[in-house]
Specification:
Its EC number is 2.7.7.7. The chain is α+β, with helices and mostly antiparallel strands. It folds into two domains: 34 residues, no CATH class; 81 residues, Ribonuclease H-like superfamily/Ribonuclease H (Nucleotidyltransferase, domain 5, 2-Layer Sandwich). The chain has four helices and four strands, in the order ααβαβββα.
């Protein structure tokens, strides 16, 4: 942080007739609170010659699955049933809960092990969604009713 340019401030304050501020700048009081001591001058510090060792976290996507067929969906339902806990999230095309349309469903059974079910992706090169929108919603109910 650099010191205020007192001469520039003084010129502006005089130009716009800020008499009180002009007097404060001339008295050396500008930008100092009442009773405040002048700021200490920064001291030079030495920097270690060695940079700290940084280890990058390797992210593996091997256990992330896009569910595009009923067989994979059934396998994931079985995994979810066996998991002590799991995370579930919906993906929508809006944050408005009244008008939002379901776009996909996601599940995770542990960190780094997750699945995504696209149900209404509509863009160039979107994956074939062999599951109709109703299948991912109905199949878990059917499995639970066994």
């Amino acid at each position: 942080m650099q010191q205020p340019a007192a001469e520039e401030l003084l010129g502006l304050f005089k130009k716009y007739e800020f008499k009180r501020w002009t007097a404060d700048v001339e008295a050396g009081k500008w930008l100092q609170a009442k009773g405040a001591k002048p700021a200490a001058r920064p001291q030079e510090t030495s920097v270690a010659d060695e940079a700290p060792e940084v280890t990058a976290t390797v992210i593996s996507y091997d256990n992330y699955v896009t569910i595009l067929d009923e067989e994979t969906l059934k396998a994931w339902i079985a995994k979810l049933e066996k998991a002590p806990v799991f995370a579930f999230d919906t993906e929508t095309d809006s944050l408005d809960n009244i008008s939002a349309n379901l776009v996909g469903l996601s599940f995770a059974i542990e960190p780094g092990v997750a699945a995504y079910i696209p149900v209404a992706h509509d863009y160039l090169d979107a994956p074939d969604q062999n599951l109709s929108r109703g299948v991912p919603l109905e199949l878990p109910k059917t499995a639970a009713g066994r």
